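The authors assume throughout that readers already know how a fold can be written as discrete tokens. For illustration, here is how one protein appears when written out as sequence plus structure tokens:
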Amino acid sequence: MLKFPSSRLAQRLALVVCLLLGVAARAADATKPFGEYQVKAVFLYNFTKFVSWPTNVFNGANAPFVIGVLGADPFGPALDELVSAQSVGSHPISVRRLGRDEPIGGCQILFVARSERERLPDVFAAVKDRPILTVGDMPRFVELGGMFNLALSQRRVVIDVIDNAAARAVGLQVNSKLLDLAREVRNGPGLTAPRPRP
């Protein structure tokens, strides 16, 4: 069981404020209350607040909003605890671990673990043209077809690249506040907007 500070809600809100202000949350080592993947779990949760999905992606008004984790799960219980009792509109957030033989089309966010690096082309082919936000944290993730890539910079978790053109192409709308946090935003040929890297 993760040991959160006395108020999980207060910690959550503080990290949301950090995200909004463009201050990347510090990734502590595994002995600290928040380690790298606990911080990355917070980023995934915040993506549900700053990305809009087409309404027709849900089977019903109360259908769950699914965060899928494909491959070797690096989050442990952190992601489940963070989204517990949270929702996106009327859709309760749930976390689904996906094995290699399971269909991956039934989620709104798909985090692709590093264990799946060698089969990224197959993963992206399986979600092609679907309104699924693909998130990773490995080199060339966006170049190979992903939408958001997280990275560590000076021991801080940052949004390294957002392929906004790829997101728009499948009906996803990324809030400008989130785009402002990325070190690089790709809006299509000739419209890439790199930012200074700390």
About this structure: Residues 1-7, 20-32 have pLDDT under 50 and may be disordered. The radius of gyration is 16 Å. The chain has one domain: 8-188.
